[in-house]
Amino acid sequence: MRRNAKRALAYLFSILGTVLGLYVGGYWLFARPVYWLVTGFTASTLTASILIINIFKIFIASTVGGGIWCICDIIASFFRDDPRDD
């Protein structure tokens, strides 16, 4: 594979991992559960099961987002320049 194509794939996977990590960990598992907790509390529709599930999602948000980023960074490392290729 050509050197520029490998570098482009490495950048692509790095950016993809960052965006997916922020989207899944930051939005789906952190921002939305916080919003649901606030709206459920203000509308007096908050139940114990909703509270427990959303708190669990909030606690694992950074772990899941970081895990997605790490996996994509490992994939990107396969395409990064190897100094032995020069």
3D structure, described in words:
The protein has 86 residues and is an all-alpha fold. 81% of the residues lie in helices and 0% in strands. Helix 1 (3-42) runs antiparallel to helix 2. The model has no long low-confidence stretch (mean pLDDT 92).
Span between termini: 14 Å
Strand portion:
under 5%
The percentage helix is over 70%
Label the structural class: mainly alpha
Number of helices: 2
Give the SSE order as H and E letters.
Answer: HH
The profile of the biggest β sheet is: none
Mean pLDDT: 92
Overall radius of gyration:
19 Å
Write the layout of secondary structure elements.
Blueprint: H1 3-42, H2 48-77
Helix pairs in contact: 1-2
Characteristics:
0% strand, mainly alpha, 86 residues
Structure described in brief:
The chain is mainly α and 86 residues long. 81% of the residues lie in helices and 0% in strands.
